[in-house]
Amino acid sequence: MATVSPPAAAVDVPAGERGATRVADRVVAKIAARAAREALREASPGDPTGAHATVTVTRRDVHPPFGEARLRIAVELVYPAPIGPQCGLVRRQVAERVRTLAGMTVAEVAVQVERLNSPLLADRERLR
């Protein structure tokens, strides 16, 4: 006859010995990229090229419970458009989403404009 041990949840383990939850950098990058794309779609809803964002995450595990993130985001924007306000919208949206979904402190969100796409020049051949 087999004996059954109590479930792991029934055993009282002190909080400091239970382990920790760590959100992987690639998960933080995915959250940030999606938030950036949503912000860009909101800023220019008629953009036929679609929003693009590339994210780099730098982490410091000094702020509980899930650490601090510094994010670098490269985006493609439609031109002509107000570039500064679009970058500000991306910065705010990304910081808020990472704080909410990953539980991390966001120390910095640096937005780099990687490319400007002009729908006016889309039908013309590329100028050299």
Commentary on this structure:
The chain is built from two helices and three strands. The protein is of the alpha+beta class. The protein has a three-stranded mixed β-sheet with strand order 1-2-3, with helices on one face. β1 (52-60) and β2 (68-78) form a beta hairpin. α1 runs antiparallel to α2 (83-102). The chain is elongated, with a radius of gyration of 21 Å. The relative contact order is 0.19.
Question: What key phrases describe this protein's structure?
Answer:
2 helices; three-stranded mixed β-sheet
Q: What is the subunit organization of this protein?
A: single chain
Q: CA-to-CA gap between the ends?
A: 82 Å
Mean pLDDT across every amino acid position: 79
Query: What is the helix/strand order?
Result: HEEHE
Physical arrangement of strands within the biggest beta sheet: 1-2-3
Task: Note the beta-strand portion.
Answer: 25-35%
